[in-house]
Structure formats: C-alpha cells, structure tokens
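@channel sequence for tomorrow's demo:
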Amino acid sequence: MKSNNYKSSLPKKVKVKLVGNFNDNRGQILNITNSLFRSCAIIKSKKNSIRANHYHKKDWHYCYVLRGKIEYYHRIHGLKTKPKKIIIKAGELFFTPPMVDHAMKFLEYTEFVTLGRGSRKKIDYDKDTGTVALI
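structure tokens (generated this afternoon):
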C-alpha cells in the first residue's frame, strides 16, 4: 500500500514562503522549493486571459510568478460555494494541492514557472484533470 506521508508535508495555504535565498557579490540564488516534482514548465499568459478552470485528482503544483499579476480562484472540489480569490504578484510562490478547483485570470502579461508532482504529457495530464467552471 502506498504511503500518503507526502501529503502531510504539502503546504496548507495558497501563498507559500520561499525556501530561502543566498546573496553575494555575484548576485542571488532564490530557492523556490525542496519538494520532489516530475514536471517543470514556464507559462506565459496575455492580459485578461483565463487558465485552468479545473482540478487535479492526484497532481499538485507550485507556481512562482516571474513577472505579472494573477487573480487566483480556489475552492475544495465538490463544494458549490463561491471560490476564494487571492492576488498573486511577481516574486510570489503559490501552491495548489490535489482536489482543489482552481482558475487564474491574468491582470497583466504574466510569466510563471510551474513545478508539478505529475507528468505534463498530455495523456497523463488529461487523465488527472477534471474541468470545472470557476470563472
């Protein structure tokens, strides 16, 4: 039987503190997370575009905003309540756990890095993703 111990180490809030950083005369190293992940992607989104409107059955993902601003909506999957909204800005890290409906509206041109537990190969991603209409 697979252990679910990894779930206890997942963030409990949407906005997540960065693991740490290191500065010296050469510049900066910004440590985003120490979690293990299988996929890494850079997503670029035009102003006023909408992404997600879905949930993941098992996958989770961290997202680090390189530039721009996101209106992020989320709620536990299956609830019919109005989703919560939070603004995510450049330099902030946020987390989406499994079984959470989520959607993003981009308030300006935005680039972010997403680090996910699961594969982003289309066949795997589609099996793990369910569609919802949050926004």
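heads up for whoever presents: The chain has a mean pLDDT of 91.
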